[in-house]
Specification:
Length: 249
């Protein structure tokens, strides 16, 4: 086992991978940790939280169980299954719920395209972290006291032009101190515009469109997003304009 933090997060280094043979290395209550995992927890490290993955886990010589939850705590990734906790040293055959992952990846790329369109067309600053919610939906909140239908239509139209361009989407790792040069700033009302950990930052680049620090999952080309719709939009009492976007299931 390579004791490098990135080697354990297979969705970052081998995003196409659907199965893994992993070993249980630690138990804490009814949760366990593996030497490497396919399953992405919900993470706020890059200010782009995405619903966690699901899947199944076979304990070698035993039963098949549904993954109930995967979460990050203290920099480690913990799993719970709907069965007894497999003991340390168990070999587990893990299978990703691919349909769930693909829908979230399409929604996440779609969210980047809308954010890029909003940035290009000088949208108000983000008041919350943009988030992939599941069901093909994502949520973006900007500072505004009214819904500006005209601006929203222009952002969606621009985002759709990026989908039509079928641009390549690629993930890479860049040095933290180079991030400010090579990446696009996100206009958050508060906090870091180039979010991510120290050292090395994972960047997701849509060719010719945008490059954001991101630990989410994505499609390979923008055409796979298919379309981008606005499911709901309203202004909260606090002056946040909430936009729920959706990619078709
Ligand atoms: Zn992202």
């Amino acid at each position: 086992m390579v004791d490098d933090d990135r080697s354990k997060r297979l969705w970052l280094i081998e995003p196409k991978r659907k199965t893994s043979l992993s070993e249980v290395i630690e138990i804490q209550g009814d949760a366990f940790r593996m030497d490497r995992t396919l399953f992405r927890p919900k993470s706020r490290a890059y200010r782009h939280p995405q619903r966690s993955d699901t899947g199944t886990v076979w304990v070698k010589g035993g039963d098949k169980h549904r993954l109930v939850t995967v979460y990050e705590q203290g920099g480690q990734i913990w799993h719970r299954i709907n069965g007894p906790v497999p003991p340390v040293g168990s070999e587990l055959q893990c299978h990703l719920d691919q349909e769930h992952r693909v829908l979230d990846s399409r929604a996440h790329t779609g969210m980047h395209l809308l954010l890029a369109a909003m940035h290009q067309l000088e949208a108000p600053p983000l008041v919350a972290d943009p988030e992939v919610k599941g069901g093909g939906r994502f949520r973006v909140e900007v500072r505004s006291w009214r819904v500006d239908e005209e601006a929203l239509a222009a952002w969606v139209q621009r985002a759709r032009s990026f989908i039509d361009a079928d641009a390549r989407v690629e993930a890479s790792f860049v040095a933290r101190d180079a991030a400010h040069h090579g990446l696009d700033e996100q206009r958050f009302e508060e906090g870091e515009g180039f979010p991510g950990p120290g050292g090395s930052v994972r960047a997701v680049t849509v060719e010719g469109v945008c490059s954001y620090p991101c630990d989410g999952t994505h499609v390979d080309r923008t055409g796979e997003v298919e379309d981008l719709l606005i499911r709901e939009t309203h202004v909260s009492d606090g002056g946040a304009w909430v936009i729920i976007g959706e990619v078709p299931a």
